[in-house]
Amino acid sequence: MSIEKHGTKSIDLSHHLSELSKARTISPLKGVMKYFAQPGILSLAGGLPSPAYFPVSDISANVLVPESFALSPTEPSTSLSWLWKLFGSHDATKEKTQAVTIPKYPVVTGEINLATSLQYGQAIGMAQLQDFLKQFISEVYRPAFEDWAVLIDTGNTDGGYDTVQPWRGCVLCEEWTYPSAVASMVPFNIKPVPVAMDGLGMKSDDLENLLSQWDPVSRQMPRPHVMYIVPVGQNPSGSTMSVARKKQIYDICVKYDVIIVEDDPYYFLQLGTYTSKDDRFPGATPSGKPMSPSFFTLFHLTIRFSFDYQGRVIRLDTFSKTIAPGSRLGWFTCNPAFAERLERQGETSTQAPCGFGQAVVTKILMHWTYDGYIRWLRGLRTEYQQRRDFFIDCLAEEFHLHAVPAVAGVWEGCTVYQASSKVKKSTSMTEKYSARDRTMFSFVPPVAGMFVWMKLHLDQHPSFAPGDEDTLETKLWTKLAENGVLFGPGWIFAANAIAEDSHNNDSGHFRVSFSNAEFADLKKAVTIFGQIIREFFQEEDL
Question: Is 393 among the domain residues?
Answer without folding.
Answer: yes
